[in-house]
Amino acid sequence: MNHTVTVMDDDPALLPMLQVRVLVPPDGLEPVVRFYEKLLAQPCNLRFSYPERRLELAGVGPVLVIAGAEAALAPVRATDATLLVPCLDAYLERATGLGARLVEPPKAVPTGRNARVRHPDGLLVEYVEHVQPSRPEHVQPS
Fold first, then answer.
1. Cβ(48)–Cβ(66) under 8 Å?
2. 91 CB contacts (<8 Å, ≥6 apart)?
3. Does the predicted model carry a pTM greater than 0.85?
């Protein structure tokens, strides 16, 4: 049986990555991160604060741990999944062209940009494009 997978730009490195979202109270972040590091045998590869939303986030492989008080987590609970994509604009165009509806337009977030999209089946998905921080220019001492 021949299976064909079509990806954007025909580059397997550009496949989107679905993240499982785990919502925990503020004191739950560290124990949950340690659990997934041991379970998945890999270190935490993403950690940042989102002060505007009063959230702390950490990633271990495909697991995104989001910590905050219940009031801060309430708006996050409505989103069913997070999809990391190599190019937010391209995936938004692709999704809406297939019948998805833009719910929250692209905006800057601590890791780059995101948007929320309602798929035709009702799934509410956060699309995220991580942007590498620019490195400061190295200045030679005079």
1. no
2. 8, 16, 83, 85, 127
3. no
Strands in 28-138 per DSSP E: 46-50, 55-60, 63-67, 81-84, 101-109, 112-118, 124-130
DSSP 62: T
Q: Which residues contact 108 (CB under 8 A, 6 or more apart)?
A: none
Rg (CA), the chain: 17
- Please state whether beta strands 17-24 and 63-67 pair in parallel, antiparallel, or not at all (unpaired): parallel
Query: DSSP secondary-structure letter at 51?
Result: G
Residues 6 or more apart in contact with residue 136 via CB below 8 angstroms = none
Structure confidence by residue, pLDDT tens digits, 68-106? 999 999 989 999 999 999 999 999 999 999 999 999 999
**Calpha distance 58→43 (Å, rounded):** 11
Q: Give the C-alpha separation, 43 to 59, whole Å.
A: 9
**Rounded CA separation 7/14 (Å):** 7
Distance CA 38, CA 51 (A): 28
Which tokens belong to 136?
A: 């400061």
